[in-house]
Design a protein that fits this description.
PCuAC_sf; Copper chaperone PCu(A)C; mainly beta; LpqE-like; signal; 11 strands; Lxx211020-like; Immunoglobulin-like
Amino acid sequence: MSARISSIITLTLCSLALSTSAFAHEYTLGALKISHPYARATVPGQPSGAAYLTIENTGKNNDKLVSLSSAVAESAGIHSMSMDGNVMRMREKNDLELKPSTTISMKPGNGYHIMLTGLKKPLTAGETFPLTLNFKNAGKIEVQVDVEGSQAPASHQH
């Protein structure tokens, strides 16, 4: 590949990354701020997918994300992922504690994510889908999840 084509591809990818973060969306539920819910596109026949978002607890009291649901999947749950040497370990969690004045960023690679199991159709880049988050104290909120290309950036600037 020529240096010129490589430069064009790099500039295009940078532009896409910048334009994606320009459309970041936020939701507020009491003291909780939920920002930029997104998922990566899946391929036909793929049984599960993952969604990511950031939750900030701006309040003075603990809260917990206790359940999730979405019309695009049979079930949605909180998973943690970590690397143990060269082995990826994924565990389902019953809930996710949100301590006062803390932020939890779900992102690809390491940490937490939302596992969408039993996808009813592929997640297609450019589409959106609803995701309901149920918190112990703050209650329920429905957010719109943007489906980004399967090679979406691992982190988003806000």
